Amino acid sequence: MSEWMALDGPHRDEVILVTGISGSGKSVALHALEDAGYFCVDNLPPELLRDFIRLEHERFAHRVAAAVDVRTANSLPVLVPLIDELRSEGVRIRPIFLDASTDALVRRFSETRRPHPLTTQPAGEDASRALIDAIELERALLADLREVSTVIDTSQLRPALLRSWVRSLVGARDAALTLVFESFAFKHGVPLDADFVFDVRVLPNPYYVRELRPLTGRDAPVAAFLEAQPEVREMLAQIEQFLTRWLPSFEDDQRSYLTVAIGCTGGQHRSVYSVEWLARRFEGRHATLVRHRELDAKG
């Protein structure tokens, strides 16, 4: 029996590892976990992760989270193999990677006037270029870690919404694979956390029906309008068939989360209805989470 299993038993809570690009909201996510009852530590050197988990479990702090970022760049290469080792020893560790578009990150650093941890050039006329170079370097350094993590794109998220998404993510029931269905507006960009992207802009648009324009895809009149369209039924059935065919392969690949993004023009009608429809179809077979990026941002 693994010493981890002997220490904590088979129902030990997961260890949450918060990582991601500087400026993407790691502090917000860590505070959300802290409010949810997790014992949290920020900027933990990867070499200390194993000892941290062991110490906190010995102290019976079963809900633990740690943030690791590029400030420990020299140690980052050991982190992905360490995650694999811990899992092989029975530790249920879940890496969550926060990401954002370069434009969003540049805007945030400009607003806060805080330096990027990889920026060495003093402020001046080339400061913007230096910041973008630092962000691109950070993406390269963290690429392997991103590949093994559940990704949340925070480009369009207010802090309150990010806190809500983090809480829902860690609160999802234990399952081999959790499906995240997310609606979005193409005019605001494709979510960076999407594993699959489907474009439903070719479907009839309720926006052009005056009575339906102020409503959303969660409202019954919009749903009735879309359900009456043969092409809507056909497209959603084909997406369902595609996912049903390939989800077992993702489970075999040890994926914990799969994000399916559905986009339309405004992220209000067609994509929202599609996400709700697909979530209902899969909720009996898989753990499912629903996100409406544009609608949630207005809430």
Description of the structure:
There is one protein chain. The chain is an alpha/beta fold and 299 residues long. It has 2 domains: 3-171, Rossmann fold, CATH 3.40.50; 178-298, no CATH class. Helix content is 43%, strand content 17%. The chain has 12 helices and 9 strands. It has a 5-stranded parallel β-sheet, with helices on both faces. It has a 4-stranded parallel β-sheet with strand order 7-8-6-9, sandwiched between helices. Helix 3 links the parallel strand 2 and strand 3 (64-67). Helix 2 crosses helix 8. The chain is globular. The termini are far apart.
Please summarize what this structure is.
This protein has 12 helices and 9 strands. It is of the alpha/beta class and 299 residues long.
